[in-house]
Write a structure and sequence with these properties.
heterodimer; A: 106 residues; mainly beta; six-stranded mixed beta sheet; B: 121 residues; 11 strands
């Protein structure tokens, strides 16, 4: 089965840029989205179609897709961005989630 | 305004069948491109996709759980129902339903609050 691999954790200082990666076989040929999930809350879609932001998502969230790796970038990271982040793609008509990355802002 | 809400038992016994209902508003499951999916999350673990049903009754299932899952829709009630057979303690998780449209290409843009299901004798 298809797998998406994320680093378990990423740390960033406030105001700096955080980059969270998601890798998978031929991932560059697929569209990817990203979710943010804070403790005790439901996931929130922050990026879809690799680079698009849903309405209401701050401009500091951006996405890119190149080769076998997609990247979620948070510019000027704020304390409120501390959360778990999940990538998601389609493969063979199945939804696949990455294992999640805990972003710590310290 | 799109909202979804999951309902069902909070506790089930091993080997029992779980039935969860997703009641939604703000959209119709008869609209072209619209789908409702189920995703679960064991405590402290990652999201896991279970099933998805589209406006045209096209259904998709997680390959690893396909034999245990059934997803159906009742458009008159604005509900989607998921059944999972032969429940096991490892199925203990928060179960979410979520909305998607083909315009997103990938992803779910609205999620329910989730319902915690515990499997224990």
């Amino acid at each position: 089965s298809y797998e998406l691999t994320q680093p378990p954790s990423v740390s960033v200082s406030p105001g700096q840029t955080a980059s969270i990666t998601c890798s998978g076989d031929k991932l560059g040929d697929k569209y990817v989205c990203w979710y943010q999930q804070k403790p005790g809350q439901s996931p929130v879609l922050v990026i879809y179609q690799d680079t698009k932001r849903p309405s209401g998502i701050p401009e500091r969230f951006s996405g890119s897709n190149s080769g076998n790796t997609v990247t979620l970038t948070i510019s000027g990271t704020q304390a409120m961005d501390e959360a778990d982040y999940y990538c998601q793609a389609w493969d063979s008509n199945s939804v696949v989630f990455g294992g999640g990355t805990k972003l710590t802002v310290l | 305004q799109i909202t979804l809400k999951e309902s069902g038992p909070t506790l089930v016994k091993p080997t029992q069948t779980l039935t969860l209902t997703c009641t939604f508003s703000g959209f119709s499951l008869t609209t072209t491109g619209v789908g409702v999916g189920w995703i679960r999350q064991p405590p402290g673990k990652a999201l896991e996709w279970l099933a998805l049903i589209y406006w045209d009754d096209d259904k998709r299932y997680s390959p690893s759980l396909k034999s245990r899952l059934t997803i159906t829709k009742d458009t008159s009630k604005n509900q989607v129902v998921l059944t999972m057979t032969d429940m096991d303690p490892v199925d203990t998780a928060t179960y979410y339903c979520a909305h998607r449209t083909s315009a997103l290409v990938v992803g779910f843009d609205y999620w329910g609050q989730g319902t915690l299901v515990t499997v224990s004798s």
